[in-house]
Design goal:
Length: 238
């Protein structure tokens, strides 16, 4: 006689959405911990990347590298030997302005939302454009020469009725802060052959969001590196 068999089937009913939510909430703690734990490392790495991007820009190199050619001798044009000091101050401020904030992860409908908020520079460049070595008082006129502000937020600003004279007499060389050029009125015999001085083309931007610093740190390759920095730091902690 054939042996009787009994098939027992256990049916377990599980609400898929509830299961997803349960898993998401359990994973939320891990995600929160990874996000919080990565903040300092991300801030340091992003600040470093910003500094590298700026220092590698053609404009930065032109500013601090020096040149004997009049059209690219920016120390002579701006009337200062403090460009390197000013740019060091700018770099320090920009690095300190990097801000990384944590957004608590939220679990719902089987997914987790949350993340990192990154703020890199102040939108108005107020602190950056007013560093001590970026401004000086011209003597004997007593006029303020805000050369750093000119190249960061002034666009194609022209200094009306004044030009840069490079062919100096010994007396003028002595009076010049750099010994290589002076700004003279176009209404004088020395200035009548000159043109109104305008912010050099390579530093002209449409507005505060398009100066050489923002152009340097918003290049696609720089953005990709910053995104990778953030992702790698979080992944290491998951």
């Amino acid at each position: 006689m054939p042996e009787a068999t009994i098939d027992s089937v256990l049916k377990l009913k599980i609400n898929a959405n509830k299961l997803k939510l349960f898993v998401a909430k359990a994973f939320k703690k891990i995600v929160d911990r990874a996000l919080k734990g990565s903040l300092n490392d991300i801030k340091f790495a992003v600040a470093t990347e910003i500094v590298v991007a700026i220092k590698n820009s053609a404009e930065f190199s032109a500013l601090v590298g020096g040149s004997s050619a009049p059209d690219s001798d920016f120390e002579a044009q701006f009337g200062t030997t403090d460009i390197q000091l000013a740019m060091n101050e700018v770099i320090d401020i920009l690095a300190s302005q990097v801000e990384v904030r944590f957004q608590t992860a939220l679990a719902g409908q089987g997914k987790i939302t949350g993340g990192i908020v990154l703020r890199m520079i102040e939108s108005d460049f107020e602190r950056v454009s007013n560093v001590p070595h970026g401004i000086f008082i011209s003597k004997p006129s007593g006029s303020e020469v805000a050369w750093l502000r000119w190249i960061l937020i002034a666009g194609a600003t022209t200094i009306d009725n004044f030009g840069i004279l490079f062919d100096l007499s010994p007396r003028q060389q002595h009076a010049s802060r750099t010994g290589r050029a002076i700004m003279v009125s176009l209404n004088t015999s020395k200035g009548e052959q000159l043109s109104h001085w305008t912010v050099p083309n390579m530093f002209q931007g449409d507005d505060v969001n398009s100066n050489f610093i923002t152009r340097a740190i918003t290049q696609p390759r720089v953005i990709r590196k910053i995104e990778k920095i953030i992702q790698d730091n979080i992944n290491r902690r998951l």
